Amino acid sequence: MKLPSLKIRKIDVQHPIIQGGMGVGISWDNLAGHVARNGCIGIVSGVCTGYRYPDFVKTLQGRPLKPENLHHRESLIRIVQRAKEIAEGKGAVGVNILHCITDYGRVVRDAVDAGVDLIISGAGIPLRLPEYAGDGDVALVPIVSSARVLRIICKSWSHRYGRLPDAVVLEGPKSGGHQGFTVEQCEDAAYSLEKLLPQVLKEARAWGDIPVITAGGIWDRADIEASIGMGAAGVQMATRFIGTHECDASTAFKEVVLNAGREDIVLMKSPVGYPARGIWTHLHDSLEDGTSPVVKCISNCILPCNHGEKSRKVGYCISDRLSDARQGRVDTGLFFSGSNGWRVRELVHVRDLIRELTHEVPAPPKTVSS
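Below the sequence we write its predicted structure tokens.
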């Protein structure tokens, strides 16, 4: 199969691949910029950007103080601009913004001001995303887990704002990080990406053929061809890009993923309120024996947590622990990974990974029987 280009609003990139946003800081300027430079869509994680330039934010005990310093405007703008410099005018650069973060609307406006080409938003239903984006010429792409959620978004956006999503990401239950499913649904074949895609495609076509991007467990060229063969416009891949030299995570973070076995990747509770998938590490052992770091809620990162209330019930602050992971603090870090993370066994360059995923493999010659 010859892979098509990917067109979303004003975006037209060579390859139908979006690099998924990974926070905290696993996908910032270096990874997103190099993905775009190689003809795909690179995505910056728009959460907890205050950790990228700590000298420019107010901190307390080494943590950004309050949401305005955690989800920091100037840092996000710098990250996006640097990613675009790396891209050298190729591909496209977008941002992923979790709907559940504190100051969500303000961060959306910051992303528009930064000049992103698209905004991807999940971890909740982003019903007011067009309002926050305003008149900015930016593609708006919600993440959904079902045709029902897409229908809700389309009805709301159409009625309130006179617009529809420029594309939609259908994320199945094999993705890393937060899931749009219960733990039971994550293990139920009825909720597999393959089962959900036809339903979401039907709903997308009912609203004018909105491009559908599949995500969650996409690993290789065969997976890409399978999704496109079913009618998807492209795919989103995140975990696979952790295994690149350009990934913004520390070497220690990458080593945790490189050393993980299939049995180490598990579903866990999260202060966000959704199940999350990641790698079982020392943090989870400390949660079980009561020695995990004390929750202080210095940053007030997400609304569902209610100033640390949910974090104390679950046992950890998600932004603190994800930030520790990015910096390679193995004892206290939270390491998210998709279900295929155990298949990452070496680091490669982004250009080589994209070449592997998009290279046209010639069909074997036909043999003539005598």
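The first helix runs from residue 29 to 37.
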